[in-house]
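pinned: reference chain
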Amino acid sequence: NYSTSICASKSPRHPLCCSTGYPLEIVRASGQYVYPSNGEKYIDARSGTVWHCHPDVVEAGRKQMETLCTNSRFLYDSMVTYAKRLCATFPGKLSCCIFTNSGSEANELAVQIAEAVSGGSKIVALRGASHGHVMTQRRLTAASSDLACPVPQPDVYRGEHRDPGTAGELYAAEVGKIMAEQDAKVAAFIHESVSGQTAYPQGYLEAVYRQVRAAGGLCIADEQQGGFKRTGKHFWAFEAHDVCPDIVTLGKSMSCGHPVGAVITTRDIAEKFAASGVSYFNTVSWCMCVSAAEYS
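pinned: its structure tokens
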């Protein structure tokens, strides 16, 4: 059967089971539903894909693959058009778009940019946050590492400070104290725009942004989960906190399951990164296909 052929293990939580309690073979999907081989029909609340197999998206991607499918070293109309439309949804000076092949790579690139532009080497990150599965992201959320400057989750439900009226200020003060104890300059503060599955206490992000920028660091908002109006009122979840990041990273919520992500930043930061001599391009040709599908 499927469980023995794919996950040949005595334990149902073999790594190939993708952290579920049992293996589930999905044979097709449509809209918000996935259909496994057992004939059932499930609402997909797990994969992060907004909408499966939308006919307009499928057709636009097919046409692009028939026409041109190459890497991001070259310019082509669909990618430029999508980048312009995407950047138009951001506030302030966030106007430069760099496509990547995943949200993990977007966060990796964001850290590289922050280090190159700020001259710092420490990244302030929340304990228990999730920013991807490549080594840099795993080091960011470790209890301690040469890269991470871990700070407490500002949790008003289970954390030390639970009064919504004062929690934001108190948790932000802890961040300032931990930053002051570091033996290296802070390059950036990275945060999910929605803290895990909870909201940040009032005033927390605004206060932390001030402290990080005063220390010469940049602020990175990870919008993998909360972006593209997933939180309801705002197109980008960070907008609910009256802050404007220096860098925003995108991933699963922009891709409908395809391997594409993006880094959005200001022209000034992008030019400083380019002047540092570090170059970036992406060999994954899906950037083009998703671009065509997204703005169709």
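why pinned: Strands lie at 26-30, 33-36, 42-43, 94-100, 122-126, 148-151, 186-192, 218-222, 247-250, 261-266. Residues 1-17 have pLDDT under 50 and may be disordered.
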